Amino acid sequence: MFRGGVFTIYVSDMDRSVRFYIETLGMKLIERHGNHWASIDGGPGLSIGLHPATPEVAVGLYLDGSIGEAVKQLSGKGVRFDGPITDE
């Protein structure tokens, strides 16, 4: 179903978060824009975006089929969707 994506993780301390992904987990920093954004290479097809903490949550995924089919499959596995789902 999934073939990659961009996961945005909201963090309270950008420096500490970047150090964790780069130094502790051994991932590669793709780009950093001060304390506003950092992109981490999460492996083939996956990018991890670090963003200052906000009330919103965003996950971007690359799918093999439609988003409707993915939601149906995930709902069948017990995943609950509380907010709007958009296909951009």
Polypeptide structure, described:
It contains two helices and five strands, in the order E-H-E-E-E-E-H. It is α+β, with helices and mostly antiparallel strands. The chain has a single domain (2-76), classed as 2,3-Dihydroxybiphenyl 1,2-Dioxygenase, domain 1 (Roll). Strands 2-3-4-1-5 form a five-stranded mixed beta sheet, covered by helices on one side. A hairpin with a 4-residue loop joins strand 3 and strand 4. The model has no long low-confidence stretch (mean pLDDT 85).
Key words describing this protein structure:
2,3-Dihydroxybiphenyl 1,2-Dioxygenase, domain 1; 88 residues; alpha+beta
| Global Rg | 15 Å
Oligomer: single chain
Number of helices: 2
Please tell me what the overall shape is.
globular
Q: Report mean pLDDT, rounded to a whole number.
A: 85
Give me the CATH superfamily: 2,3-Dihydroxybiphenyl 1,2-Dioxygenase, domain 1
Approximate strand percentage: 35-45%
Task: Record the strand order, biggest sheet.
Answer: 2-3-4-1-5
Topology-level CATH name: 2,3-Dihydroxybiphenyl 1,2-Dioxygenase, domain 1
Structural class: alpha+beta
The tally of structural domains comes to 1
Weakly predicted, low-confidence segments = none
Biggest sheet architecture: 5 strands, mixed
Assigned CATH architecture? Roll
Helix content: 10-25%
Q: What's the end-to-end separation, in Å?
A: 17 Å
CATH class: Alpha Beta
The number of strands is: 5
Which series of helices and strands comes N to C? EHEEEEH
